[in-house]
TrEMBL record:
Residues 2-295 form the Dehydrogenase E1 component domain. Belongs to the BCKDHA family. This is 2-oxoisovalerate dehydrogenase subunit alpha. It is an enzyme of class 1 (oxidoreductase). It catalyses: N(6)-[(R)-lipoyl]-L-lysyl-[protein] + 3-methyl-2-oxobutanoate + H(+) = N(6)-[(R)-S(8)-2-methylpropanoyldihydrolipoyl]-L-lysyl-[protein] + CO2. The keyword Kinase does not apply.
Length: 341
C-alpha cells in the first residue's frame, strides 16, 4: 500500500511535468489490495483503472509498470495503450481497456469457460460504481447468475464515478441491491479496511470455485485524488471534504495504526521503508524514461496472423512518407530508428 502511494505521487507529478501523457492515482482506495491476497494467482483478473496494487501484489515489477507508462521498447503492450492500462499474461491479468464496463461481460464469459473446462479457479472483475450504470453491467450479472459462472464482481464505490456524485447517479441503495435483484450472493464491505476486503474476497472465492456461484462485492470507499490527470475534482466537491476524508478515514493510516498497536510496525520502519522504496521507484522511473519507443513496425504487427495486402500497402506507404519527409519523423526516438520498416 505504501509502494502504491509513493508510486502514485511520483507518476502524477511526472504527468504534470509532461514526461508521461496520462495517469490515474489510487489515493484513498489503497485497501483494495486486500482483495488480491484473497485470490489464487491462477485466478483470472479483469481490471478497470485502479488495480495497480493488485498487479504489484501478484509480482508485476516496478520496471514493467514504468515501461508501460512510458510506452517504451520494453512495454509488454508494445506502446499501444494509454498509461495505466496494464496487462500481464504471465500474471493472469487481462489488459485494461479504456471503454467503460466492457470487461464486466467479458469476465462472465471467461468464468463460464473456466467452469466448462473444469478448472478450479475463478474470475475477478473490478469496476467502479460509475461503470455499474452501463448496460454491460446488467447483462454481465444476469448471464453470470443464470449460467452459474464462478466470477466475483468487485465494485469499488468511491462515490464519484468520473465526475458525478453518487447521489446524482442513482436513487437505489448503492450497487449491492442490484446483485440481490439478479439473484447473486452479495455483500457490502468497508472499502478502507484491508482485512475486511481480504476476508470477503476469500469467502467469495470459496463460493465461486466450490459452488459455481457468482458474487458481488461492493466496497464503500472514497476517491481522495482526481479521477485522472484530465480531471479537476474541485469542480464537483469541496476541497475541505476531501481533506477531511484524507485525515479521518485514510486506509494507510488505519492499517499503520493497527500494526503499531500489535508492535509489528513503528515510525522508524515506516521512514526506512518509504525512503528505500522511493529510491527503487525513482530508479525504475529513470531507466524507463531513457529507453527508446517500440519499433515503428509494431504499428503493423499482431493484428493478423499473416500481414494482409492492405497492411503491407500501408507499411510501404509509411516508408515512402518517411523517406520523403524525414524531418517530420523523429526516428531517433524509436527502436531501430525505422531501419526495419
Amino acid at each position: 500500500m505504501i509502494t502504491l502511494n509513493i508510486l502514485d505521487l511520483i507518476l502524477y507529478d511526472a504527468q504534470r511535468q509532461g514526461r508521461i501523457s496520462f495517469y490515474m492515482t489510487n489515493f484513498g482506495e489503497e485497501a483494495c489490495i486486500g482483495s488480491a491476497a484473497g485470490l489464487d494467482n491462477e485466478d483470472m483478473i479483469f481490471g478497470q483503472y485502479r488495480e495497480a496494487g493488485t498487479l504489484l501484489y501478484r509480482g508485476f515489477t516496478l520496471d514493467e509498470l514504468m515501461n508501460q507508462c512510458y510506452s517504451n521498447e520494453n512495454d509488454l503492450g508494445k506502446g499501444r495503450q494509454m498509461p495505466v492500462h496494464y496487462g500481464s499474461k504471465k500474471l493472469n491479468f487481462q489488459t485494461i481497456s479504456s471503454p467503460l464496463a466492457t470487461q464486466i461481460p467479458q469476465a462472465s464469459g471467461a468464468a463460464y469457460a473456466l467452469k466448462r473446462a473444469g478448472n478450479k479457479n475463478c474470475v475477478m472483475c473490478y469496476f467502479g460504481e460509475g461503470a455499474a450504470s452501463e448496460g454491460d453491467f446488467h447483462a454481465a450479472l444476469n448471464i453470470a447468475a443464470t449460467m452459474k459462472c464462478p466470477v466475483i464482481f468487485f465494485c469499488r464505490n468511491n462515490g464519484f464515478a468520473i465526475s458525478t456524485p453518487a447521489l446524482e447517479q442513482y436513487k437505489g441503495d448503492g450497487i449491492a441491491s442490484r446483485g440481490i435483484g439478479y439473484g447473486i450472493d452479495t455483500i457490502r464491505v468497508d472499502g478502507n479496511d484491508v482485512w475486511a476486503i481480504y476476508n470477503v474476497t476469500k469467502a467469495a472465492r470459496k463460493l465461486a470455485v466450490e459452488e459455481n456461484r457468482p458474487v458481488l462485492i461492493e466496497a464503500l470507499t472514497y476517491r481522495i485524488g482526481h479521477h485522472s490527470t484530465s480531471d479537476d475534482s474541485s469542480a464537483y466537491r469541496p476541497k475541505k471534504e476531501v481533506e477531511d476524508w484524507k485525515r479521518l478515514d485514510n486506509p494507510l493510516v488505519r492499517l499503520r495504526k493497527w500494526l503499531e498497536d500489535k508492535n509489528w510496525w513503528n515510525e522508524n520502519f515506516e521512514n526506512e521503508y518509504r525512503s528505500s522504496i522511493r529510491k527503487e521507484i525513482l530508479t525504475a522511473f529513470s531507466k524507463a524514461e531513457k529507453l527508446h519507443k517500440p519499433s515503428i513496425t509494431e504499428l503493423f504487427n499482431d493484428v493478423y496472423d499473416h500481414p494482409t495486402p492492405n497492411i503491407i500497402a500501408q507499411r510501404q506507404k509509411l516508408k515512402q512518407l518517411i523517406e520523403k519527409y524525414p524531418n517530420n519523423y523523429p526516428l531517433e526516438k524509436f527502436k531501430n530508428k525505422g531501419k526495419d520498416l
